[in-house]
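Hey everyone, long-time lurker, first post.

I ran two proteins through the pipeline my lab uses and got sequence/structure pairs for each. Pasting them in order. The first:
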Amino acid sequence: MHELAEVLTDRKGLAWIAATAFLYVLVLVPFNQYHLEVFGIAVRPAAVVPVVFGILWGPAAAWGLGIGNIAGDYFGGSWSLMSIFGFFVNFLYPYLAYRLWHRMMRGRAMRFDLYGLGCFWAVTFAATLICMLLLAASGTIFFARPFTSKFISYFGNNIFWAMIVGPVLLALIFAPAVKGRFVYGREWDRWFATAAK
């Protein structure tokens, strides 16, 4: 069974799904209702969440953020048919970050050092680019929205906060999460098994 399906049958996985969905909604709703800007850049703390949560909680974060995005749009007053595609993009975004991160960290000590920071930036750029292309393309194909302007808006709003604030958040929680095994996914299980040898 693929880990994206297996997580739905695992008590620990379900707990992480609930936790990540709840935290995502807490961050999404206030800023969906009140659009704040700093120097012309939209304040989007939710943009920090997908890569950081994805690295730590993999498949659980995928489901959590997908569900959280639907709830955030509904309760934040921005629900539309595009929210359906938002679910799939927010599902893919953390899982892609999780797989890319573990691929780049394979065979290395799991530390958020300079190499880890470089990996984080590379993963953030790649995952954000792919997912924002998909989101903009969905809007163009199904709702005739202008692709270029939507992609620039989606990518610009997400990449800035993810690249600048994301490393700060991950640096704060990475070591305690790994040490306490407050992480989830088969890639983490493999790493712990290898580290124990």
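...and the second, right after it:
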Amino acid sequence: MKTIQKTIIIMNKKELRKFALAKRKELTYNKDELIKDILKVINGKNIAVYYPMKDEIDLLALKEYGFNLLFPRVNGNDMDFYKDVTLFKKSNFNVLEPINGTKVSKDEIDFMLVPALVINKDLYRIGYGKGYYDRYIKDRNYKAYGVCYEKLYLDFIPEEHDQKLDGVIICKQ
């Protein structure tokens, strides 16, 4: 009989963030399959997304399906979403944020696709560590799904301030 050993590596959120950023550079995904998976769960017309950074999962193709894409902009310790955006500018975080468009209320959001470095089986995410999305989705009346690479669907223990998502879209290689 052959014995198989399984190695378990325990990392804190900071270490997982660093691991995920490095691992993500090696990963690819099928954009058409991703969009098909998203279309199966998405509802409504006003979809909160993000402008993808390097190696981040790109959701901009959703515009071709008639959705109104809403983009985030950080304002101090808060984040707001904007519709009818045509111009973007790099923020202090190196993220492209809208510099025009109309600010929307949370009630105008029908569905949100949340960026994630890592998502666990209990639907908690690890982002970039500033807590903007956790604060924004804390009180919501729309579904918020994380978008994550299959190889970064990992286990970790969430912290008290982490907000649970309603679902996850896994990007398969």
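Reply from user beta_strand_b:
Welcome! Quick read of the second one: Residues 34 and 40 are 10 Å apart (CA to CA). Residues 13-24 form the longest helix (12 residues).
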